[in-house]
Amino acid sequence: MSSSPLNVAIIGMGTVGSGVAKILLDRAEQMTTRAGRPIQLKKAVVRDLSRPRNVDLPAEVLTDSIDAVLHDESIDVVIQLIGGIDPAYDIMLRALESGKDVVTANKALLCEKGESLFRRARELGRCICFEAAVAGGVPLIETVTQAMTANQITSIEAILNGTSNYILTEMFSHNVSYDDAVKSAQEIGYAEADPAMDVDGTDAAQKLGILVQLALGIKVGLNQFLRQGIDCLSLADLQYAAELGYTVKLLAVAKLLDGQLEMHAQPTLIRNDNPLAHVEDAYNKIALEGDAVGKVWLSGMGAGQMATASAVVANVVDIAVGRAALTFPRLDLWNPREGIKIMPREEISRRYFLRLNVEDRPHVLADITNVLGDHEISIASLVQHEAPEVDPSEEFSIVPLVIMTHRTTEGRFQAASRELDELDCIRSPFVRMPVND
Questions:
Q1: With 80 as the cut, is the pLDDT of residue 29 above it?
Q2: Where L-homoserine is bound, by residue (predicted)?
């Protein structure tokens, strides 16, 4: 084992980058003990050198030049924490080609460009480590790629977006609106100024895509499976779900069924006796099912500075002790495999929750049940609270109607939804969610 220092550079000193720097600087002695050699932060690349930061960096560490890192032969590892695809893809390629291993938390980049990046890393004899890209501080990537290698993973059910989970928890626990819960998440630092990728389901879908790639060897684009966010929900939806014995979570699912992969990431009603229903705040929880080990549960913080930084630093230590160099070239990561087909979304079978705002007048319920019946969808339960008497000057009032269906296919449900959208008696919003039984 080498006793020489492992020199690292951070590109991107945002929330996570600052957390990584804090750990490397404040726990230098601990990191040396665990890595068997010193880990030295040599450079930190920022866009604005004059901007104040919440971590005290030595003056010689800060730079606004990426080339200062890539051209420095003494730097062994680049911690690449820039989001998005461009210029992150070019920076990672250049880091690999300059002889450096890479640690990243960029799930969007891996989801879109993982195959070419991993191929190039193997050609160059370099490593890419990415534990922080999925589930924050939860050691999920290591579990899927190493600890469960004796298994064929047959099922993934996971809460993978800590920001959305915090928002849903805040709404229901504190009886606040969606907008107020988002604002709270932004104030704490869980949500960005523009929280779109978290709340529209993109982040969870990207993470699910990475897990499917690792577990099953197939690349699934975001447009190939159902994706829906929590930005369509209101407090009323969570309250009606609770009345029916369920909790709403943004649930990412991938299941092997008869040689096909059922895959979706959507706000979903989960029975209250399911452990996934009790994951609160910014925590993530993942249920992996293997054909040998059965069900394995993992849980931990899925958002926040130090949780994600923890996973980044763990990868740096893997490189320092030589584990990454041994495992990366041998693991079957991002090598395309054949044989598993994506289940057409129209064939996915499950139950559904509908919340409709309807005119409180005769024949409305008959109109709705006729549409559902025409598509062979039967009703399991119906909730309509007693409405107040209508003012004589008004023709009718608008009241919420909640329907739980029996099991049906996504194709039938979508066809019925389109017809329900056309009924004059239904007013927007029309909320629909799957049920995980």
A1: yes
A2: 192
From CA 5, how far away is CA 36, in angstroms rounded? 9
Q: Is 2 annotated as a binding residue?
A: no
Q: Domain residues of the chain, as ranges?
A: 6-136+307-327, 140-303, 346-436
List residues with catalytic annotation. Answer: 207
pLDDT value of residue 81: 96
> pLDDT above 90 covers what percent of the chain?
84
16 labeled binding residue: yes
CA distance 248 to 233: 10
Query: Is a pLDDT exceeding 90 seen at residue 50?
Result: no
Give pTM, 2 decimals: 0.93
Task: Tell me if the domain spanning 6-136+307-327 has CATH number 3.40.50.720.
Answer: yes
- Does the annotation flag 36 for ligand binding? no
Transcribe 295-346 into DSSP letters. EEEEEEE-SSHHHHHHHHHHHHHHHHHTHHHHHTTTS--S----SPEEPPGG
Q: Does domain 140-303 have CATH number 3.30.360.10?
A: yes
The residues with which 155 forms a beta bridge, in sequence order, are 255, 289
Using CA of residue 132, residue 137, residue 139, residue 140, what is the dihedral sign?
negative
pLDDT digits (tens, 9 = 90+) for 278-301: 999 999 999 999 999 999 999 999
Is 17 annotated in a binding site? The answer is yes
Report the CATH fold assignment for 346-436: Alpha-Beta Plaits (3.30.70)
